[in-house]
Amino acid sequence: MKKLIHFFFVFTLFACNSDSTIDNEAQKSLFTLLSSNETGVTFTNTSIETPERNGGHYDYFYNGSGVAIVDINNDGLADVFFAGNDTPNKLYLNKGDFKFQDISSSAGIESNNWATGVSIVDINEDGWMDIYVCNSGPTVDDNLLANQLYINNRDLTFKEMGAKYGINDTSYSSQATFFDMDKDGDLDLFVMNHSSINYEKDVHKWEEVLLNKPKRIREKSYSTLYRNNGNGTFEDVTKESGLYRPGFGLGVAVSDFDENGFLDIYVANDYFIPDFMFFNQGDGTFIEDIESKVTHSSFFSMGCDAADINNDGLVDLAVVDMTPPDHFRNKTLMESMDVNKFRYLTNYKGYVPQFMYNTFNLNRSKGNFSEIGHFLGIAETDWSWAALLVDFDNNSWKDLMVTNGFKRDTRNRDWMNELSIRYENEGVSAAVLYDQLQKTNSTPIANYVFKNKGNLKFDDASKDWGFNELSFSQGAAYGDLDNDGDLDVVINNLESEAFVYRNNATDWKNNHYIQFVLSDGNNTNSVMHSKIKIFTDNKEQLVEYSFARGYLSSMHRLAHFGLGSIDEIERVEILWLDGTKTIINNPEIDKKHYIDKKTYQNFIAEKENINVQYPFMDVSRGIGISGFKHKENKFDDYKTEVLLPHKQSTLGPSIAVGDINGDGNEDFYVGGAKGQAGQIYIQDTKRGFVVSRQNTFINDQGFEDLGALFFDADSDGDLDLYVASGGGGDFKDDELLLQDRLYLNSGQGQFKRSIQSLPDIKSSTATITANDWDKDGDLDLFVGGRTKPGEYPLPPDSYLLENKNGIFKDVTHNIAPQLKNAGMITSSCWSDIDNDGREDLIVVGEWMPIMAFLNTTEGFENASEQLGLSDDVGWFYSINKGDFDNDGDEDFIVGNLGLNNKFQPTNKKPLHVYSNDFDENGTLDIVLSKSYNGNLVPLRGKECSTEQMPFISEKFPLFSDFASSNMVDIFGTENLNSALHYSATNFASIYIENKGEKTLKMTELLREAQFSPIIDSVIWDFDDDGNLDLVIGGNIYNTEIETPSYDAGKGLFLKGNGDGTFTTDLKIDDSGLFMPENVKNLELLFILKEKRPAILVANNNSILNLFAWTK
Fold first, then answer.
1. pLDDT value of residue 197
2. Secondary element (H or E) of residue 353
3. Which residues share a beta bridge with 115?
4. Cα–Cα distance between 861 and 815 in angstroms, integer?
5. Which residues contact 600 (CB under 8 A, 6 or more apart)?
6. Which pLDDT score is estimated for 12?
């Protein structure tokens, strides 16, 4: 009965049958769904429920099974094997023209086991493919759990010999993959197993409960690594290899992610265990170190695939989760993220952060990934299983297919609450659970396919390509079933007939293709995981020769390349796993090539030059700055502002650069967090940077530094220091610590705070820019208000400070009243936009348009609308200027949140924020909102909204009531009308070209620059070609826990072309820049005797980095 109490499970759906006729519309689609009457494929997977055998007893009762496409009789036609749960496995022989014959019974592959994954291998190297089947299910019987190895007898029959080979694993197995882990020429075996959440639902106790299980039971939760002994047997080497750890493995991908020459293992784990990334050390051991390569992962990870989607020669990684894109389904089926659980997993356990979205990790070289699922538009595909990356339309770019569906909506929050009430009233029993299961919704979902258009653009082509049928689809495989040069698809469905899709690409597209089948004499094992590259017109494509992919399935053994309209291939390079390489020039296209390694001359592949000089080099450790680490004070913004979109207490540190002691070398100041003194670093060309410890900063360590600027405040010829004070809700009731500070320079780099120089400042400020706007010969200041602590998103005060002989007066109200409460300003700059000889002020911020205030003789005039800037409202974080098109005036780089976010606002569908005391308890409440079916609805769910505003749960007792209500229903027209209301329309970072005559043209920056927020940028002609270049950086790690961190930034060098355009390369290896942390400030700094340009990087709660230009 305890298992019933811990019943956890999942979504539901109901499948249609596939016996449909092909109409005219289907004929136009890329895929045609063939009926079982046409194909003879009638396989239907089932999971038969009883009161004592259902999803309450076995976590993965509705997870379905896999499928394999394999030529079992070497006749050149790919056959199909289906794994079944409560349905016996089936094998269909391909008779040609999409006609299949069921030979399951005579082949000897049917069993009573609960089959999950299927893998293909020629395990005895006789040239005939064998079948390895993983088993699991609602049983503790080792005979039923034992994995099975079906040896091909070469006569359409098979013999089960798993025990003889020593790989009849009796764990709860999901999938297996054969790969050569030690490069000895034979295939080893990784069996991915899964544990049970029913052991203990509480994440704090689950591991303890598991460890107290008997060893025989406990070890069923651990995956197994078998080493091939080379004599027809395998040996369990899990413990000594470093893979011995429990998990909930549902997806596995094998590739050399870190490019060290040895194959690594990625395991996609369900539930709260993070995905594993096991890096092969080349000595028989692996190290799990996902945190070093991936910034966050999916939470309920399902299937996965690894392939190169942007044709840069690097293997990327897709993992699917279970978040519905539909608002109603999302708000009724998805559980709110538990704050305490999230912190326990990330802070106490040290796990990589996990979010309930599909993830797509783009490889930036050496396995350093940027997660860009939302950027690509593929992050939400409902309860998903298989993720497959392959070129379906032969346009030379790999598409993404995702299967969907869950038999029962057991994650419906109202259903779960009803079950709890029944348990309380009727007692916990199998009968109650079984009866309640029959009341769940069963909602079939269509599968997805996303067309890759190149340039990191994916379009949802599901309907256009013929993926219209609703189903509970799990395992899927692709292969060229009719040998026509395109890839067909077979999908294993639960409770309905399998799908067989014919691909029509070669019939109605003009795209070409080429295919390769590899061997090494009669050996097809040693060629596995070889890398095949084709080169055409300065472009390249990569396909890895590996076939256990997606979810529980195996693909057709061929390497397929779509070519688009290209009709000639310059060369093919095959990098074999042993380190040798074969080159084939001008192979014939529109053909399948059989490549026997032994018949080609092979070369030793060139090793990477480890002494290569990159344009930038990280010199942080050897130059004297490694002793500083920003130490953020602990404060929970969400304790009082539950619905805050991202923390406001982690916005520092800031940096100021300047020659403070007059020796000709640039020094810098780095700000501290609350309770940490800022520090001055003096540059010595021989010793690097030396800390100048000064009591004035130690005395002021109670402040938090959000901005800093060196400028000559008192016109005495040396640089003084202005520091902007600020912070989050921890400063709400302490206005004294919001007072900005001015430190006057003695002339030798020693500073003393001037108390009387500044007016009272009550805002949390950040940006400071100096300009002699009144033309009186001294420098005046603009100081931007960043936040009102604890009252997001209320606009703070900003300040124009006029310099009166070193005393600064607040003149904002007199000369720029519209600037006073312009918004949450993050950055500013001065530039003469209208070419009148007076520099104008441009400011940007959160929930703001780009605002331009023209400097006139009467004061500052808001000309934002006149200049065409007011339509695009974003979360802007930086603005910097430079003449990028060499026309003599200044253009602008405006850093925004970027396009890799879950909100994706547009002018037609903005992102809204409302702030009001909706529950009348004396505190402001924040509500984010977007449009759904023509009405505004809240973005956050019922649980977290209730935590902020308790009346919501009383007004809407059912989750379905809340999900079907709009903003007016929930909050009322009067409350919404009286609320502070902003709307954001564009999160793209922007290049603004100054075309003269008060004309500004806005253009989105390169797509590669949109992965993460541009918190700051540095502008300089680094390569001395006469054109300004750009370095961008930034991440926001401190989002609320239901929003994935904006953490895909690694730093990026954009080479200026001199016409306002840029070129870039995403590979970290090509630039040498690597800024993966919570970057908050970049500053240009010239170092050493030759005044080499360098970029100083300030990271929140971390060390400084310094990247020097080496060319």
1. 80
2. none
3. 135
4. 9
5. 582, 584
6. 32
Instruction: Give CA–CA dist 264/179, Å, rounded.
Output: 10
pLDDT, position 20: 37
- pLDDT tens figures, 719-750: 999 999 999 999 998 999 999 999 999 999 99
Looking at this protein, which amino acid is placed at residue 619? V
Continuous segment of H or E residues that includes residue 1071: helix 1068-1071
Pairing state between β 1016-1020 and 1029-1033:
antiparallel
Residue 302: enclosing H or E segment and its boundaries?
none
Report yes or no: 1056 and 1048 within 8 Å, Cβ to Cβ: no
Can you tell me the distance from the alpha carbon of 198 to that of 1103, in angstroms, rounded to the nearest whole number?
A: 42
- Name 918's Cβ contacts closer than 8 Å, sequence gap at least 6: 925, 927, 949, 951, 971, 975, 979
Question: What is the distance between the alpha carbons of residues 474 and 147, in angstroms, rounded to a whole number?
Answer: 20
What the block records as the tokens of 432 is: 């109650």
The pLDDT, as a whole number, for residue 4 is: 38
3-state secondary structure of 446: strand
Q: Which two tokens stand for residue 583?
A: 């080159």
List, in sequence order, the alpha helices (H) in 455-561. Answer: 505-508
Question: 11-53: per-residue pLDDT in tens?
Answer: 332 233 333 333 444 457 999 999 999 999 999 999 999 999 9
Size (the chain), residues: 1111
Residues of the chain with pLDDT under 70: 1-27, 608-610
CA distance 1111 to 1106: 16
Amino acid at 773: W
Q: What is the pLDDT of residue 732?
A: 93
Question: Rounded to an integer, what distance in angstroms lies between the CA atom of residue 725 and that of residue 48?
Answer: 64
Q: How far separated are the first and last CA of the chain, in Å rounded?
A: 70
Question: Residue 188 corresponds to which tokens in the numbers above?
Answer: 């080893």
Q: Can you tell me the distance from the alpha carbon of 632 to that of 340, in angstroms, rounded to the nearest whole number?
A: 20
Q: In this structure, what token pair is assigned to residue 943?
A: 């649980």
**Cis ω for the linkage preceding 793 (within 30 of 0):** yes
- Which residues contact residue 295 at a Cβ distance below 8 angstroms, ignoring those fewer than 6 apart? 352, 353, 369, 370, 371, 1035, 1037, 1045, 1047, 1048, 1076
Of 252, 206, 207, the residue nearest 225 (C-alpha): 252
Structure tokens at 86: 């409560």
Q: For residues 995 and 989, give the distance between their C-alpha atoms in angstroms, rounded to a whole number.
A: 19
Dist. CA 758–CA 741, nearest whole Å: 7
Residue with tokens 């973005």: 939
Q: Round to whole Å and give the CA distance between 1078 and 1074.
A: 12
HSE-up of residue 1043 (Cα within 13 Å, Cβ side)? 22
pLDDT number for residue 18: 35
